[in-house]
Amino acid sequence: MDFSLSSDQLLIKESVDRFVGDAYGAERRRAIVAGNEGFSRDHWRTFASLGWLGIALPESQGGFGGSPVESMILMEAFGRGLVVEPYLPTVVLGGNALAFGGAHGDLLEQMIEGELLLSLAYAEDGSRYDEGLVETRARRDGDDLVIDGKKRGVLFGAVADKLVVSVRTRGLSQDRHGITLVLVDGDAPGVRRRDYRTVDGGRASDVVFSGVRVGPQAIVGELDGGLAILERTLDYGIAALAAEAVGIMSVMHATTVDYLKARTQFGVPIGSFQVLQHRAVDMLMSLEMARSMCYYGTMALSSSESDPQRRRALSATKVQIARSGRYVGQQAIQLHGAIGMTEEYHVGHYFKRMSMIELALGDVDHHLRRYVALGRIEDRAERPPDVAPPVAAESFA
Amino acid sequence: MNLAFSPEDHAFRAEVRSFIKRELPAEIARKTRDGDELTKDDYVNWQRRLAARGWMAPNWPVAHGGTGWNVVQKHIFDEELAFGYAPRQIPFGVVMVAPIIIEFGNDAQKAYYLPRILSSDDWWCQGYSEPGSGSDLASLQTRAVRDGDHYVVNGTKTWITYAQYANLIFCLVRTDPAAQKQRGISFLLIDMTSPGVSVRPIVTIDGGHEINEVHFDAVRVPVENLVGAEGQGWTYAKFLLEHERNSTAGVAASFRLLGHLKELAAQQRVNGKTLIDDERFAEKIASVEIELTALSYAQLRSLASEHAGKTPGAESSFVKIKGTEIQQAITELMMEADGYGALDPATRSALWYFNFRKTSIYAGSNEIQHNIIAKRILGL
Question: Mean pLDDT in chain A?
Fold first, then answer.
């Protein structure tokens, strides 16, 4: 068992920590969020030049052969810095979907060079968080597919050059078989978007497809066989969100503890009050439980275990992340008192992003249900996971 | 970076597993699984088998009879013991008093006591708490007054686990009432068969007898039973707390308990299906299982930092709090799962629950652990 980050991984960590420390910060982020596109093209070029856009993708797909651990390192730092650039939709969701599909190496190369932005369009009005429930339909017309339907919550849909869209090519809305992933140009005829600023400083779109025509080369993976790729992609998304959440929680916690030491009331620092001390300790424990599950989920992505086991592990991860995040976030606001409620103070922005991560790619109820359902088809072994953590371990606080 | 256990680790696990399978008497395994009370003979029987294999004291230096295992191997060993339904390790000799004797005791004490712990000739218990000194342990009042070659000890120690089995007790006693409260405390080893020692059983709410009150009435203790220097007892006790890591997390034991809960839930019926297939109950089990998975990774991370040579810090407080909360959550669900069965003491389900309320109180209450983390990690 070897617990250390490799020297390459340490370099990534140093460079992303430096980026977040130097280039980000509340004021600059505010300007980026208020800007036209909601992210910085300059920063995106930096990401490309530092190799971050291809770091976790396989070499066979033009990537640099890293693992989910590399993605975790980046996402945790992005969480600490509250980085808004569309790394999640472009690289983690869009990029992984294409990589798992296997046939779009040229597009991945463009993405890795920073010249192509992607997003994933899977959620629908009627599907809530269930990626297997797809009513957007694509009918065959010769070799082409013609798409009609509506997707919602497409992250940075307005700037995405291409969307990976889940469509139903066979069967009824809940059939596992018959879902196909297709690539659609963001500005293809028949694509209509409603773009909006999200409550957590990002951008998203609801996208309507009316008779949108794509050729057979647009299919990601197999016709009718897109669900497995979609599930795997979303699991990578959960692990990435988990890392981002850990970064966010660590800032909220550290900020709160600093505040407890600095804020004086009744002639003493409020951190001398035991009720607040214990709250701060509970926040720390929530954070550390989340960090542990972030490692566990990241691990599960690269393990050789079966798909249901992987999905179950990522559901467990998401449940813990969301529960920890809600506790840490709410307490961070509460312990700051009224200052925590202000737009001006940074802790509220972390809280808002954390709250949206709670529900992104499935909330606690959704993943508890999935965890239970997947558990039924496993043996009910009570042993703990027979694996060590993927990195070492950031020790406790 | 290699994320999995090494082939050597797997081989080691297999070796431990087959040892347990071969050596652990079936009746002891059954009692452990069902939560029946183990007798002193049961514990000693098992300890002697471990000792014969050289595995009695993995936490000791090799020179004194330790195994030389790294932290990962120790972790594997603990897991296998729990999954194999071996009796829990009785910590008072091997884990609690021995490291203090090894670190601060003199050669004669090491030569006498350590082999007797390995051979199970001695059974130790711990005399720290007093009726008036719980969380504020340093306020303890048991007095040891020097009288020639002896200390004369008067006072009462309480909540003493398995004092009824023990022939020796290690105590924190006050040797200097004038000194500042921590400074006046010394670490004394006392023979339970000495005149003036009496043991009163304390029955807990689950009906069990694990704990006792021990009374000292002018008990004469030879001065050579003092460990280290007079007035340093508090320092030694703290040294132990800082080095006693993870032992209360009980992760493997909780996974085992969780298996028990699932078996129980699979036997109960509700609305025409089994309780484990009832969505509401299944999600309760899932929630605690997820927390336990997180804790198991937290524990591995803590092992990793120890492996990397870091001294254990307040992580042990973290795993104590979370570990005991999870144990308690599982036993709550066991009682719930049993329905009316919980009324009957023969099912033990409610008794488990009652008994496990102790876990957030003993070994430093969870509130005290919060204080420790607030002070030592957060600097509040």
Answer: 93
A156-160, A207-211, B83-87, B171-175, range with the lowest pLDDT:
B83-87
Measure A303 CA to nearest chain B CA, in Å. Answer: 9
Whether B14 contacts chain A with CB within 8 A:
no
Q: How much of chain A exceeds pLDDT 70, in percent?
A: 94
Give the integer Cα–Cα distance in Å for B147 and B222.
10
How large a percentage of chain A has pLDDT more than 90? 85
Nearest-Cα residue of chain B relative to residue A278:
B370
A141 by Cβ neighbours in 10 Å (0-12 / 13-18 / 19+) ranks as exposed
Question: What mean pLDDT comes out for the span B138-153?
Answer: 97
Please answer yes or no on whether B293 and A385 come within 8 Å at the CB atom. Answer: yes
* Range name among A79-93, A225-239, B255-269 with the lowest pLDDT average: B255-269
Chain A residues within an 8 Å CB radius of B84: none
Residue, of B163 and A386, whose pLDDT is higher: B163
Q: Is A194 helix (H, G, I), strand (E, B) or coil?
A: strand
pLDDT band at A390 (very low <50, low <70, confident <90, very high): very low
Residues B301/A295, Cβ–Cβ less than 8 Å: yes
Question: How many other C-beta atoms lie within 10 A of the C-beta of residue A366?
Answer: 18
Contact (CB<8Å) B308/A389: no
| Residue that wins the pLDDT comparison between B312 and B157 | B157
Half-sphere exposure of B32 (CA within 13 A, CB side): 20
Question: Counting Cβ atoms within 10 Å, is residue A377 exposed (0-12), middle (13-18) or buried (19+)?
Answer: exposed
Q: How far is A293 from chain B (nearest CA, A)?
A: 5
- ipTM of the predicted structure? 0.91
Domains and CATH numbers, chain A: 7-116 (1.10.540.10), 120-220 (2.40.110.10), 227-376 (1.20.140.10)
**Other CB atoms within 10 A of residue A211 CB:** 11
Residues of B labelled catalytic: 244
Question: Which residues of chain B are in CATH 2.40.110.10 domains?
Answer: 124-230
Collapsing DSSP to helix, strand or coil, A375 comes out as helix
B contact residues 267-296, partner A, Cβ 8 Å cutoff:
277, 279, 282-283, 286-287, 289-296
Domain with CATH 1.20.140.10 in chain B: 245-376
Whether the per-residue pLDDT at B305 is higher than 80: the answer is no
Helix/strand/coil for A141? strand
Contact B377 A393 (CB under 8 A): no
The two structure tokens encoding residue A364: 């606690």
| CB nearest to B380's CB, from A260, A316, A391 | A260
pLDDT at B276 over 90: yes
- Chain B hits for A260, Cβ within 8 Å: 380
Distance CA A151, CA A123 (A): 6
The answer to whether the CB atoms of A392 and B379 lie below 8 A apart is no
Domain range B124-230, CATH class: mainly beta
pLDDT at residue B92 is higher than 50:
yes
CB contact under 8 A, A272 and B380: yes
Q: What is the CATH number of domain B245-376?
A: 1.20.140.10
- Contacts across the A-B interface (CB distance below 8 Å): 168
Cα distance between residue B335 and residue B53, in whole Å:
38
Q: Which pair of structure tokens corresponds to residue B101?
A: 């004797």
Q: Who's near A190: CB < 8 A, 6+ residues apart?
A: A147, A209, A210, A211, A212, A213
Q: Look at B294 and A296 and tell me if their CB atoms are within 8 Å.
A: yes
Residues of B in contact with A278 (CB under 8 A): 367, 370-371, 374
Cβ contacts of residue A141 below 8 Å, gap of 6+? A213
pLDDT at A110 over 50: yes
